[in-house]
Amino acid sequence: MKYIFLLLATIAGMLPLHAATVDTVNVRSVLMNKDIKAVVISPENKKATSTLYLLHGYSGNYASWIKTAPHIEQLVDTYGYLVVCPDGGFNSWYWDTPKNDYLYESYITKELIPFIEQQYQVGSDRTNRAITGLSMGGHGALYLAFRNQDLFGFAGSTSGGVDIRPFPDNWGMKTHLGEYHQEPEIWDAHTVIELTHLVKPKSLELFIDCGTEDFFFEVNNKLHEKLTYMNIAHHYLTMPGKHNGEYWVRSIDFQMAFFAQCFQKVTLN
Question: Which H helix or E strand runs over 176?
Answer without folding.
Answer: helix 173-177
